[in-house]
Design a protein that fits this description.
Strand content: 25-35%
Shape: globular
CATH superfamily of the largest domain: P-loop containing nucleotide triphosphate hydrolases
Distance between the termini: 22 Å
Order of helices and strands: HEEEHEEEEEHEHEHEH
Oligomer: single chain
Number of helices: 6
Number of domains: 2
Helix content: 10-25%
CATH class of the largest domain: Alpha Beta
Strand order of the largest sheet: 1-2-3-5-4
Number of strands: 11
CATH architecture of the largest domain: 3-Layer(aba) Sandwich
Length: 244
């Protein structure tokens, strides 16, 4: 629960006039807004100005969802009824301002991975199979959902200055008018530039292949070891996929 200096407002976690205006006038005072910050099997973790708590969706919502695209996702603003201080029921998803979606394996349906994101940091590593084409796919994934893409080239300490200059030039030519960050968690290079551009009351996500350093960058930005990281095999040079 938030007390004292830790008290937050809904606006601090992304609530805006967009969602206020989308809230149904007939929703009633019993339904209150909260934001989904994590998803587990059959359960969601929500945050509002009072605390973090768990929630489940109603059976009606489950029946009416024609595909996974219409299930709640991380980043969604939802309308809930509190059952007690630690549990709630989700009754409605407020319209999404932006979305990050992917096609489900073996199906034509899409799944919403996250929503209401302002900026997607697309992370690529120099020590893996660096690919401009893969960056373009992630770029298109973000942009198609209304999210502003930015590129983070990580582990820049592992290549020569000459090679880094060549790659940077390629990125600037391919992704014009896009913020490009050169980072190294080992040396701390570029982390301050990222931190400077991350603003309050905006929502950011980090996307990219497993092992490129997303969790390590987030830990550096937060100043804490909050995100699990996967070890890199020196033989295969492939990171373990970690779900956090």
């Amino acid at each position: 629960m938030n007390t004292g200096d830790n008290i937050i407002k809904l606006e601090d976690i992304g609530y805006s006039d967009f969602f206020v205006n989308k809230k149904e006038s007939d929703s009633g005072d019993s339904l209150i807004p909260a934001r989904i910050i994590a998803e587990h099997i059959g359960e969601y973790i929500l945050k509002n100005e009072a605390s973090d708590f768990s929630a489940k969706i109603t059976g009606k919502m489950m029946l009416e969802a024609s595909s996974r695209e219409y299930y709640p996702a991380v980043g969604d603003w939802v309308l809930i009824i509190m059952l007690n201080k630690s549990q709630a029921v989700i009754h409605e998803i407020l319209p999404r301002r932006t979305t990050l979606k992917r096609k489900m394996v073996g199906s034509s349906d899409a799944q919403t991975i996250a929503s209401n994101i302002d900026v997607a940091f697309i992370v690529e590593s120099t020590d893996r199979d660096y690919s401009l084409n893969r960056l373009e796919r992630y770029f298109a994934l973000a942009a198609s959902g209304g999210i502003k893409p930015a590129i983070v080239l990580n582990k820049t300490d592992l290549i020569t200055a000459e090679k880094l200059e060549i790659i940077t030039k390629e990125l600037k030519e391919r992704f014009k008018d896009t913020n490009i960050y050169l980072s190294s968690v080992l040396s701390g290079k570029g982390i301050s530039d990222l931190k400077k551009d991350i603003k309050k009351r905006r929502t950011y996500c980090f996307i990219g292949s497993s092992g490129v350093g997303k969790s390590s960058i987030i830990n550096m930005l937060l100043g804490d070891n909050l995100m699990k990281t996967g070890k890199i095999s020196t033989y295969a040079n492939r990171g373990k996929h970690i779900t956090t």
